[in-house]
Amino acid sequence: MREIRIEVDDETYAQLQRLAGDQVEPGQYAKRLLTADLARAQFLETAGSFAGEHGQAFAEHFGAGPRSHAA
Question: How far apart are CA 68 and CA 9, in angstroms?
Fold first, then answer.
């Protein structure tokens, strides 16, 4: 595991404290936010790649647009 240290201004730290509440400390909350953001970015990148590679065949097979009967 690697460690990253960042500095934030007082306003940002106070916001992290508010959002973290009493359940976790602000640094742990920030770690969760960063991890979730990276997972989301990876998902979107992979989804875009998949759509670019398979989108046309999918649309031909299942249809596209408002007339589609996809679930």
Answer: 50
Q: What would the DSSP string read from start to end of 5-70? A: -----HHHHHHHHHHHTTTS-HHHHHHHHHHHHHHHHHHHHHHHHHHHHHHHHHHHHH--STT---
pLDDT tens-digit series, residues 29-64: 999 999 999 999 999 999 999 999 999 998 889 887
Alpha carbon distance 38, 31 (integer Å): 11
The model's pTM: 0.65
Mean pLDDT confidence for 9-19? 96
Contact 63, 69 (CB under 8 A): yes
